[in-house]
Write a structure and sequence with these properties.
Elements lengths: L4 E5 L5 E6 L3 E6 L4 E7 L26 E2 L24 E7 L5 E8 L2 H6 L4 E9 L3 E9 L5 E3 L1 E3 L2 E3 L7 E3 L4 E5 L5 E5 L4 E2 L4 E6 L5 E5 L4 E8 L3 E6 L1 H6 L12 E8 L5 E3 L4 E12 L2
Antiparallel strand pairs: 1-2, 2-3, 3-4, 5-11, 6-7, 7-8, 8-9, 9-23, 10-22, 11-21, 12-21, 13-16, 13-18, 14-15, 14-17, 17-20, 18-19, 19-23, 20-21
The structure holds 6-O-phosphono-beta-D-tagatofuranose (TA6).
Length: 291
């Protein structure tokens, strides 16, 4: 599959799979199993990727789709544990790659527990991440409990979407839902019947939300459609100007050009997996031009 998938040294010398399908190009760092680029033919990149992103072992790349597992945010029981778990900063293995349906190219990556993960989280696990690069980007994360005991975990496909102007964006699919407001001390709130518009720092964990989200972006003249399965949580994040100024791997105006709409299972929606059981979280992204 040399012409469809080439693994070479990317930024920071980290191995990066460059994918060229008939319908789209993509880049996937094995570091973190991190999709950093998906660009359907004739379109601008769909994922935001910071020009100041750091590419180094043990660090998370700012932008694209960080893979969050096995906890979301800070670890409740250990404030020194890495934010958002360890999957996004570990070296994954590329297991297979080849042609998929509808002119796509499909890659499968894997990550298992080892001494370093067990030092942070004692459970044994096996992760499989299937990335389908085509006119649709399809991301499937399978978690298998290979421990002799059940474990509880959280997960997120922490998708950074590129937008023309975040202040002009509307997000549908979260009407009449409950959320935890992380910018208000995790207060429990309700979002009303209107589509979501961002007017300041936003960090919301929408609970029990399984519906399609549509990000309408008039500045780029497009709509991003996010469908999902196996995910009960949707997280919407934008740090806005002041918070972004304190994030070293973002440029000062980057907050205007991004919004995270994350396909997750977090907080009240954390999952318990019995020994030998599996859970699959699926997110698909596609673009539509706005007339
Ligand atoms: O998903 C939203 C969030 O949990 C925010 O609270 C914000 O901190 C963001 O993720 C980024 O986290 P990071 O560890 O990548 O800087």
């Amino acid at each position: 599959m040399a012409d469809l998938v080439v693994v070479e040294a990317g930024e920071g010398g980290l191995p990066c799979a460059r994918v060229r399908s008939a319908r789209a190009d993509a880049e996937i760092y094995l570091h973190g199993g991190h999709v950093t680029r998906w660009q359907p033919r004739g379109a601008e990149p769909v994922l935001f990727l910071s020009r100041r992103a750091v590419y180094a072992p043990g660090k998370a790349i700012r932008g694209g789709v960080p893979l969050i597992f096995p906890w979301f945010g800070p670890r409740a029981t250990d404030p020194r544990a890495p934010m958002h778990g360890f999957a996004r900063s570990r070296a994954w293995r590329l297991l297979t790659s080849g042609p998929g349906p509808d002119d796509s190219v499909v890659l499968e990556l894997g990550l298992e527990d080892d001494d370093a993960t067990r030092a942070l989280w004692s459970s044994a696990f096996s992760l499989r991440y299937r990335v389908m690069v085509g006119a649709t980007l399809s991301l499937t994360l399978e978690v298998v409990n290979t421990s002799p005991a059940p474990f509880t975990f959280e997960t997120a496909l922490h998708t950074y979407l590129a937008v023309g102007d975040v202040e002009a964006v509307t997000i549908t699919g979260l009407e009449d839902t409950r959320f935890l407001d992380k910018v208000d001390g995790m207060a429990r709130k309700r979002h009303g019947p209107a589509p979501l518009r961002l007017t300041g720092e936003t960090d919301r964990v929408f609970l029990g939300t399984r519906a399609r989200c549509v990000v309408v972006d008039p500045a780029l003249g497009r709509r991003l459609i996010i469908d999902k399965a196996g995910s009960a949580t949707t997280v919407v994040w934008n740090p806005w100007a002041t918070k972004a100024a304190g994030i070293a791997d973002l440029e000062p105006e980057d907050w205007r050009r991004m919004v995270c709409v994350e396909t997750a299972n977090a907080a009240d929606d954390a999952l318990v997996l019995a020994p030998g059981a599996r859970h699959v979280t699926l997110a698909t992204l596609r673009l539509e031009a706005v007339a």
